[in-house]
Amino acid sequence: MFDTSHPMLKPLWVRLVTCAAPLGWACFEWLLGNPTWAFLFGITGLLCVHQLFLTYVPPEDEADAKGENMP
To answer: H or E segment at 13?
Structure first.
């Protein structure tokens, strides 16, 4: 659905925040009594969890791909 091989998504904390933001907002919307928005943000957060944790493959470093870090 989106490019998970981008180097920005390599740090764990970035992936955690990317998933936590829509899931947290879904909880907020649910508490305010807006189930439609809660559902939409919840689905978005679950999609992020699926893409960034369950099926995530970390991108290779360019130096590793070229073999420059070999001993």
So the answer is: helix 12-31
Dump pLDDT digits (tens) for 7-27.
Answer: 999 999 999 999 999 999 999
> What does the domain layout of the chain look like in residue ranges?
19-57
Report the predicted TM-score, pTM, of the whole model to 2 decimal places: 0.80
Distance CA 4, CA 49 (A): 12
Q: What are the residues whose beta carbons fall under 8 Å from the beta carbon of 58, sequence distance 6 or more? A: 10
Residue 34 tokens read as 């807006």
**Sign for the pseudo-dihedral over CA of 37, 38, 39, 44:** positive
The two three-digit tokens of residue 3, written as one number: 């490019």
